[in-house]
Design goal:
By secondary structure, the chain is mainly alpha-helical. The protein contains six helices and no strands. It has one domain.
Length: 177
């Protein structure tokens, strides 16, 4: 029998595929860009001039594509010095509060990035070599931060309603360290 929790988990897994595919593609492109840049630089003393700005754009794509998935799944780095002091139900409430607080707090940097994106669009800021408009990357970062905030808020509510497992409890069992 398929429960609501299973449906929510499957929907989340399906939603996570697209940004992780995009991050994987950006990493693959960055790998090839670096390979050809080093090859051309070493063999022909003729590097790819735009490699630095392409690397920056691809790095932003990698980080901000995976940010919503990593944050919502609880795969981020956690210092668990006090976890032994909390019962499983208290840990669920604590983690739910953490998800809600930090999910809400993420709207402030999102609003700042939106201001910077609008400013870049108004001023016509472009990259040095390829003359790509910089506001596209800024808008992408904005939408990724908002998606992360919404994902964390939803996950925090689901933890409070006990409709999802606490990712920290499941990862602790899988981690042999």
């Amino acid at each position: 029998m398929v429960t609501n929790t299973t449906k929510i988990r499957r929907a989340g897994e399906r939603l996570a595929r697209l940004p992780m595919f995009f991050a994987t593609l950006a990493l693959f492109l960055m790998m090839w860009l670096t390979f050809f840049d080093v090859l051309l630089r070493s063999a022909f003393s003729n590097p790819i001039e735009a490699s630095t700005e392409l690397t920056r754009i691809l790095m932003a794509a990698i980080v901000f594509s995976s940010l919503p998935v990593v944050s919502t799944k609880g795969d981020h780095i956690v210092v668990d010095l006090l976890d032994s002091l909390f019962s499983p139900s208290a840990a669920r409430i604590r983690d739910g509060l953490i998800y809600l607080i930090f999910g809400g707090l993420l709207f402030w940097p999102a609003s700042r990035v939106l201001v910077l994106a609008e400013r870049a669009r108004e001023f016509g800021n472009a990259t040095e070599y390829l003359h790509l408009p910089q506001f596209y990357v800024s808008y992408f970062i904005f939408f990724s931060i908002v998606a992360t905030a919404i994902g964390m808020l939803v996950h925090g509510v689901l933890l409070f309603l006990n409709l999802t497992q606490n990712p920290r409890n499941t990862s602790a069992k899988d981690n042999p360290c």
